[in-house]
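Entry 12.
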Amino acid sequence: MKIIDLSLPIDDKAFEVHKVAIERVTHKAGVEKFNRVIMGKTLSGRIKYLLGKRILKKEDLPDEEFLSLEIVHSPVHIGTHLDYSFHYGSKSEGRPSKTAEDIPLEYCYQDGVKLDLTHKKPNETISSTDIEAALSKINYKLKPWDIVFLFTGADKFYGSPQYFSDYPGIDISAIDYLLDRGIKIFGVDTMGIDRPYRFMLKEFLEKKDPKALYPAHFYGRKREFIHIERLANLEKLPAFGFKVICFPVKIKQTGAAWSRVVAIL
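Predicted 3D structure (C-alpha cells):
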C-alpha cells in the first residue's frame, strides 16, 4: 500500500489573498501563558497575576518547559478544503443549503479518477467536451460516487501571486456532466473552480453582466454538489485504480472545511 498526500498546508508564510496568521507559543513561553489564562478566570486571580503571583513556575516543569500551543487564524478556504452548498448561497435546489459538517462521510472514501486537463490555459474553462475527451483517453467510464480529480498542474504556483491568476475554471456543462453520472465530489488542483478574479472582474466591468462572476460557484444554488479546492501532487497518481480519503474537519456551520486529502494505491 502506498499513501500519496494530495493536500496543501495552511501556511502563514505563503502568499494569500486573505490574511492567515499562526500564533506560536513556545515551550518556554507556555508556562507564562498558562498562568495568565488560568489566573485570569477570576478577578482576584487577575489581580494576583498583575501583582506578580504565579501558580506554576518554570522550575516546576521537566526541562523548565511547558507544552507548545499554536493558534491558527485562517479562513476555511485556505489550505486543501471541501466546499458544500452553504458556501454557494443560502438555498440549494430550493432547500436550505447544507454546511460542511453535513457532508455525508460515505462520499469521502471512494474510488478516484484523475483526468488530465493540463492543456487548458488560464481564462479558459473546462467543459463537458473536455471531460469526455479526458475519459476517452484513459478508457474509463464514470460510476456513481467516483471522486473525480481535474488535473491542471496549477498547484506548482502555490505560494506565489501566480497561483491566483494562472489556472482554468470549470464550465457549468462540466459540472452537469459529472452530476448526471452520480458524482458527488469532484476536486481541482487550483485555488477555485471559477476562472481567476482578473478575468471575471474584467468581463464584469466591461459588460456589466453579473453572469461573469463566479458562475460555477453560484450554480451550486441550482444543483447541490461538493467540490475540493487546492489539491496538490495529482501528477503522482495514475488515471484510476486508487482510493481517495477526503473527510472534512467537523466545524460548526461553515460552507467549507479543511481536509487532509490522500490517495491510497
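Annotation: The chain is about 25% helix and 20% strand. Residues 81 and 258 are 4 Å apart (CA to CA).
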